[in-house]
């Protein structure tokens, strides 16, 4: 099976999935030649509507952290994007997004990753991806996990979600922008040179 066939199966699965909002389609960016993999939580409403992953202010911030243009970021032959939940999960009672449907990751990630042999670095963006992939290696608090980022290299690099909701967290942890972001940019530059 190739990635195109697998993506067709995923689309059919989402169409029948009772936990996915009606009319949802998986928001993925995949290629067997991609070298950088970004695993986040789930597409936001703008990404779901447009069909473009990270198509919002959070995506702008993530691209700035990576120091990647939109052209490179959206080149599936360079950057793969696979969320934990493949479609927008809807809103919770407080108006925020519900958690991603991690059943999508459980069911499909292993098959997807098996068809992307050129991945050099996987970014785990947010606690859902970090807990799923790091399991007992994740620390009790997200700040501790991210501060221990060097423990997970060379396979993974951990990041907070780039949402404005994390502005306070970022400001209260200056090491993030002083140490981790320059190291992240160096890793990404090395991958694409």
Could you walk me through the main structural features you see in this protein, from its secondary elements to its overall organization?
The chain is α/β, with parallel strands linked by helices. It has one domain (3-192): Uracil-DNA Glycosylase, subunit E (3-Layer(aba) Sandwich), CATH 3.40.470. It has 9 helices and 4 strands, in the order αβαααβαβααβαα. It has helices spanning 3-16, 45-50, 57-66, 70-73, 103-114, 127-134, 142-147, 167-172, 175-192, and strands at 36-39, 79-81, 121-125, 156-159. The chain has a 4-stranded parallel β-sheet. The longest helix has 18 residues, at 175-192. The model has no long low-confidence stretch (mean pLDDT 95).
Key descriptive features of the protein:
single chain, about 190 residues, alpha/beta, Uracil-DNA Glycosylase, subunit E, about 10% strand
Report a brief summary of the structure.
With 193 residues, this protein is of the alpha/beta class.
**What is the H-and-E element order?**
HEHHHEHEHHEHH
Q: What shape does the CA trace take?
A: globular
Helix content: 40-55%
CATH superfamily: Uracil-DNA glycosylase-like domain
List the total number of helices. Answer: 9
Number of strands: 4
* CATH class value: Alpha Beta
Radius of gyration: 16 Å
- Proportion of residues in extended strands: 5-15%
């Amino acid at each position: 099976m190739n990635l195109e066939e697998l993506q067709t199966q995923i689309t059919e699965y989402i169409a029948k999935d009772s936990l996915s909002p009606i009319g949802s389609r998986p928001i993925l960016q995949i290629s067997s030649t991609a070298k950088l993999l970004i695993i986040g939580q789930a597409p936001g409403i703008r990404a779901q509507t447009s069909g473009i992953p990270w198509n919002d202010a959070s995506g702008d911030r993530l691209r700035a952290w990576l120091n990647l243009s939109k052209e490179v970021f959206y080149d599936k032959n360079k950057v793969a994007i696979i969320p934990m939940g493949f479609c927008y999960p809807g809103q919770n009672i407080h108006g925020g997004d519900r958690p991603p449907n991690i059943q999508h990751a459980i069911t499909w990630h292993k098959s997807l990753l098996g068809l992307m042999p050129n991945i050099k670095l996987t970014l785990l963006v947010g606690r859902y991806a970090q807990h799923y992939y790091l399991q007992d290696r994740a620390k009790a608090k997200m700040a501790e996990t991210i501060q221990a980022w060097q423990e997970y290299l060379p396979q993974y690099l951990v990041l907070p979600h780039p949402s404005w909701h994390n502005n306070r967290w970022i400001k209260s942890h200056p090491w993030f922008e002083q140490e981790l972001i320059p190291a992240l940019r160096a890793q990404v530059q090395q991958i694409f040179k």
